[in-house]
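Below: protein 1.
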Amino acid sequence: MNVPNPSNDPQPDPRGSRWLGFGLFWLILIGGGMVAGIVASAASMLFHGATLVFSLATLLPWIAPLVVAIWLANKGKTRTAQGIAFGFLSLFAVGLLLVAACFGILALGGFGNMH
């Protein structure tokens, strides 16, 4: 008898993946920052004096993950949107750890020896 066995493969969650959102956040932030920096640098060499436009363009990598998270949440991919939110939280945590490390270095070296 050739009876097909039911598939034991788990179906992907239709709400998306938190890990995908987390990776998407860092990809947008780092990749977008590199692209924005290269474009702003090249454009500033070609068009002098348009620094306001280029400085606003460098904000796009910070705004784009938020826009993508809202778009994904509206499409029903709430877990992927949560992953992007976890990406924002991880960025905050990394910044907090770096600040704490700098204060630790200053505390060990003594605040009085700063010149």
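Below: protein 2.
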Amino acid sequence: MKPFFLTIASGLLLFFFLPLQAQEVKIDPFADPKVLFKSLTHKEAVQREAALDYIKIEKPPSLIPYLKKAILAKKWLFFSADYTNRPVCEEALRLYPFSVSLKYWIEILQETGSATMKLEVMNYISSSGHRSIVMPIVEELKNPFFIVRQGAAKILRGRGDDRVYPFILSMMNDPAPVVRVYAIEAMNYLYDSRFQREFLNMINDGDAWVRVSVIYSIRHNRIENTIHIIRNSAMNDGDGRVRFAAINFLLENRDPALSGILTKAINEHDRITRLSAVNAFSKLNLAMAVTYFCTRLQFEEDDEIKEIIVDSLVHRESVPSTAGIVKVLRGDKDVSLRVKAAFLLGLRRDIQTMYSLIDALKDEQDTVRAEACNSLANYQMIQATDALVRAISGNKSRYVRSAALYAIVKSKTRNATVGLFDIFAHEQEPVLRDHLYKTLRELIVKYH
């Protein structure tokens, strides 16, 4: 039988010790990662905030696989719980230190098909400064989305890590032309003169877009001592797209050899080459350009090129020869080009051109006939005056008749007086009759 005092002591110990022991045992409501994830993605904000506060303090590694799965949920499953919970899961994963989460962020970068997410992940993990992120980002230089490739190149440019260059050099030798183009794109941000020879050799690549990309990259990187390479491409490349890029490069750099290149290119069979030559000629202040324009217009069938040539001639108000312009005036389907051609022929003032304008008075379009009348005003010849009088009497269009009458006034010729009087005697249209009266009175006062 225990002594009485031992019984009392045991009872006191049990009274004080057991409650203290019970107080030290805490129940963790988020010990199970499934429970924590369910709370994190709960529709109630209070539940989500409680989960985020817990993650911020405890940072349980067991939750990360659940976060990764939700972040990588397919976009086309928009109504799935995982996809709609993606933002809060990304927020939660950012609460982990890079020492724990970086591996998973890299896996997300490699596994996601979303260009936007790739860009966000690359920008985020680049702040870690860890060397392990370089090669996963380098891999994105091959990504089919331009925004991803550009983002990767910009991030890599800021790191100065030479491990990128063997990868880019391997891309330059890839059998797929599109990958070689991507390699040149990367060089727009990561160009290094140590690899200039390999880079410039790509101007001889078998794919035209690769060669075009090289030209644009030379321009972007302002690589010196390459003008001879660009000239050769402008003169001799077999693809018009490459010659177009090369000619524009030479134009921007005001290369003195460009005019000689253009004189050959403007008559090439390839449409893009001719277009690039015409565009460049129109921007150069060269007297010789109008001569080549007029010659080319005799044979050109492309509407866009004809429009550029005609607009340039109108702007310069110079017509060395008229054969091409007459061809446009007589047969081009574009009304605006025929109107401009009629204007240009009015600058010449020779007999042959005058008869072309007289023929244009039979054009089916009022605007062309009116412009021909305006140009005939520059010819103080009886044939021109008679044609204008006939245009007044033989046209139903008030617009053309008025244009012919104003042309007679502008030409300051007395030969129209009798013809205008005959028209005035029978004219019924009040506005034109008034104009005829004033014109006749002016002619009589001035010349008779």
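The CA atoms of residues 72 and 112 lie 6 Å apart.
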